[in-house]
Amino acid sequence: MTTTTEDTEVTPPARTEGPSLLQRLSVRPEIGAALGALLVFVFFSIVTDRFLSPLGIATWLDDASTLGIMAVAVALLMIGGEFDLSAGVMTASTALVTALLAVHAGWNVWFALLVSLVFALTVGGFNGWVVMRTGLPSFIVTLGTFLALQGLNLGVTRLVTGTVQVSGVRAAAGYESAGWVFAATLNIGDARIQASVVWWIVLTAIASIILVRTRFGNWIFAVGGSLPSARAVGVPADRTKILLFMGTAFAGWVVGSCNILRFASVQANQGVGLELHYIIAAVVGGCLLTGGFGSAIGAAIGALIFGMARQGIVFARWDSDWFMLFLGVLLLAAVLVNNRFQKRAERVRR
């Protein structure tokens, strides 16, 4: 009996292809903001000729820059799962500290700036410490800080100056060099670009690198996604969140410094109410209110949309009240789009 053995052809398993470039782009948190920015840019470019003039471009970039500096820091904090309602009033507090020390105490502007920076970082660190120590919602803790700073700003300013405004910084020692860093203008053709725009671009780049290229960036996503899970795998959650609160305070110091050295005066109630704009810009840029998802670049684009829309409405000579309608619609649309992108991103990663 002869046994014939037939060779069996083995078919290799089919290779599973990874997500395409289009799929990877479609799940980026900032993609919705980028498309929205493009639509706003095209719309106002058509509606008014002033929008694309050198003066027009410089104006809406200037409008977006200080908002963008804060929005990027707030976005990192939101990705980490927290909020800071004291971010707006912090811009006034730091500017007031600088102005009071430089004008009424006779300090060099650079020393006054250093003290206001220490003040900002202390308040930010305190916010983070209280949140992590007590477990209270950051919404409540920073609301208390917001009210305390607002009262402190008004009370101290009125006590020292008799009014709610401090001015005269230009006469202080060190103003020229400090003004060059925080309030200089860069002439590009007929456009005059403010120093705050440069700060905005630099800080956005730094925040983006930290978020996607460093271990600390991984910690931010981890504590925002699930705090117990992050702690279980060894993430220093307390330190991470405290540093994030200090980051928003630092951004407030930068904005406050740009404002006081550019305008040479500050109102005690300056910045009140802007904290909601910072959060909206971050949400428009792709951040979820639940944490664990978002983008620094997206927050910067969200601020750009604010600047283009606000100044575009002015250039078109429309009633500025329409801007609030725009904000409301934009916020609702951003929340819906971000939730959809997050679900799609989870499917692609699987």
Explain briefly what this protein structure is.
It is built from 14 helices and four strands. With 350 residues, it is mostly helical. The radius of gyration is 24 Å and the shape is globular.
Q: What would you note in describing this structure?
A:
The structure is a single chain. By secondary structure, the chain is mainly alpha-helical. It is 71% helix and 4% strand. The protein has 14 helices and 4 strands. It has helices spanning 21-26, 31-47, 54-79, 87-104, 109-134, 138-161, 175-183, 195-213, 215-225, 227-232, 237-263, 274-284, 296-315, 322-349; strands spanning 165-167, 185-188, 191-194, 265-267. A two-stranded antiparallel sheet has the order 1-4. Strand 2 and strand 3 (191-194) form a beta hairpin. The radius of gyration is 24 Å and the shape is globular. The chain starts with 20 loop residues before the first helix and ends with a helix. Mean pLDDT is 88; it is low at 1-10 and 12-16.
